[in-house]
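Replying to the earlier thread about multi-chain prediction with a worked example.

Input:
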Amino acid sequence: MTTLATPRSAFQRALEALLSPLPPHLPLGVRLREERAETWLREPPRGADQNRMCSGSLGVTLCVPAGEEALLDFGEALVAAAARVCDLEEQREGLCEELGTAYESLAAVFEIGGDPALLLAPTRALAKVLDHAVAFEPGLQGAFWLARGDVLEPAQWRVGEPPVARDAGYGIVGRVLRERRGLIVNVRGDGWGDEPELREARRVAVAPLLAGGEPCGALVVWHTEPGTFDSRLMGLLTTLCSQAALILEQERLRQEAVAGEKLRREIEIGGNIQQVLLLGRTPADVTGLEIGTLARASRQVDGDFFGFFHHRDGCFDVVLGDVMGKGIPAALVGAAVKSQFQRFASTTGPAGRKLPGAEPAEIVAAVHEQVTETLIELGRFVTAIYARFDVAKGLMTYVDCGHTDALHHRADVDKVDLLHTKIKGRTNLPLGFARETRYDQVTVPFGPGDTFLFYSDGLTEARAPGGTFFGVDAVATALARGGGQRAQAVVDRICGEVERFSASAGIHDDLTCIAVRITGSPPPSRLCLEVENIRGSLARVRQFVTEVCAAIPGRPFGDDGIGELHLALTEAASNVFDHAYSGGPGALRIEAHWSPSELRFRLFDHGKAFDPVHAKPPRFDGSTDGGFGVYIIRQIVDLFDYTRGEGGANVLELVKRLPRKDGAR
Amino acid sequence: MKHASETDGRVTVVTLLEDALEAQDAKEFRRSMEKELRGKGKVVFDLSRVRFVDSSGLGAILGCLRVIEGGGGGLRLCGLSPEVKKAVELVRMDRLVDVHGTREEALAALRDEISALGLET
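Result:
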């Protein structure tokens, strides 16, 4: 640490002056080592063990968090600027000594150099510089010129009429800028042209303003009375110009810092777009599969996006895309393309066809039709993969639009397949590549425990410090190692390996990936039973009804409801045994199907045609003791129907609406 | 259908011992009951062990009711599970037969009826 005994060096002061306008949260630590003492001029960012240290020249060590390496360049530029400021100060001190007597001038120099408010307001600072210049002698007039490109513009003036902008090579200032050294003219007309402000002048002194050795403006003073300008005035003007150069340099650096802050804001805005529009939520309740996602945004926002579209239990679409290019424009394109996927995946297809009937290839084709023209106009394209998982069928159908190859870890053989799409010798193009193109789909079977991985090229193209890519093989290896783990664990493992691989090189692209793991078959929405007409079969039918009621999600039937269904199904089965088979041997098959709204039983037998539905209503006076069965069924179910099916089967159908969750029927 | 019959005073209590009274054994139950209960007077069917009765079972009980009432007797039911009670109500049998919660309640009701008629207990 610094000790009080060690005075701050000019370099440290210069560096501190340059660091002071930086926003406090800018993650840049600066440590200065001078005379064996080390001082943190800016505290290191938090989490110092993650920080990147960079030992630069002049005993300065810069410190930034991993992933913020771009700030090192900025820090080094600040160090270089401080060194330059030191040089200027030395020059100024030399000039001040030479100046000797001009106390007024010295005061001016120190006043300007020591006022932080002036450092932050260059116009005011330049005004002060010019005031001090014209104070050198009563009656002096003056102007401060700044060169912007080929034009010389007056920044400050102490003369009645404001000077007009002019060509940078014009007149006496033009000459000084060309020659890069001061000029004194004590005889009118010798060296200057017809500059309007100099019309009445009898003597003129001009000092160039040099920034980094390059002329960027000039300080001009003149007098309308005859007399003599000498080297003392030139010394003052030169010193003031050095001071002005310093102020302008600091202003430039400050604006760079502000621009850096603007960049950070842009990253922040882009990050919000990404989180809200491009990524969104990962669904947690898809039957038969589970999903893990990784979305690690880089400093510069990419246009990576993903989305999930849930059609029904066990049928589920995933899209993952990557917009070429970076920044907010890419993020906006990504959001627009994703919204088109959302639109076609979840509403109506291109030909007014209701989805999810549309195949993935049709959805991609519809999106292509919508976005390609615009993407071509914008000169952008989008790679994407659109995949549909049908858990009941055990099939994954996908369309690869020029995206990175998806990976499929097959649990049964513990092997990773690269889903490299080449259909009939061609691959699908990215969206926005060509107006006339076709999108083909591929279907891959899967089994329980399989994991699919979709990712953007940020993952495979992550670089090690030596420059090698992480590569698809490493992703596949990481996926195989994660076999059997939950999808999120697989994704986290891959992310961890990429980070280890990149180490100090840092990760510059977005890392986006989705793992979809097949957890098993979905609970069936149907169950079946076959029974013979033997003792105990009716009890088996009731047991079946109990099983069905237990299998329906949310178990909508309570004990009373299940009891009623026991009764209805026993009656229906008894009817089959008693009438279709006349009490003789015969088989009965019962299928139960359910949806969120109803439960449907269908009873199939191959006995003689028998229609119980149109049986006569029973009498309730005790005079008969039969014929109640159908009446009971009708009391319990919402629909009771009979058809004589093809192949001579009797089909009885009983439909019961599912009780609503709030208990209302 | 296995069952146990016992006499409590002038009341015959028949306890059904299987958990279902349904199509496949309702006929056999009815046949044996009709024989057994002829001229028995007051009868109570204790259904507390029966979990399920279908329309055939209900029909068998109705058959028994006709035999008992034909001989000047009466039938009471007791110990009905909610599921059995529901079936009884569905065919409106609760209008034809008195249903009691427990065997004791059924017996007490029958005793009252007998004493009201001036018969010996």
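Chain A has four domains: 10-82, 100-254, 280-518, 526-657.

Feel free to reuse this layout for your own posts.
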